[in-house]
Specification:
Alpha-Beta Plaits, four-stranded antiparallel sheet, single chain, alpha+beta, 82 residues, 2 helices
């Protein structure tokens, strides 16, 4: 298992947040921590997630998130194994 930092940006359509949260909940055992920073004036909502998992698990979750309309996802996977 590796540690990854995942950045999620939800643009304009806040309704995508429900689907994002459902996916994050499905991987709840892998989430070490998360922080959300809303900017309603600009209609941008940012979530940062510290995640532990295999490369396959990280890719599966970010892939699911990236398929949601209005959601952009980037991940940085470390070499740190836990």
């Amino acid at each position: 298992m590796r540690i990854a930092v995942i950045g999620i940006v939800i643009e304009k359509n806040r309704s995508a947040a429900k689907e994002v949260n459902e996916i994050l909940s499905a991987y709840g055992d892998n989430v070490i921590g998360r922080m959300g920073v809303p900017n309603p004036e600009k209609e941008v909502y940012v979530i940062s997630v510290i995640f532990k998992g295999s490369n396959e698990t990280i890719s599966a979750m970010t892939g699911r998130l990236g398929r949601i309309v209005g959601v952009n996802v980037k991940s940085a996977v470390t070499n740190v194994e836990i």
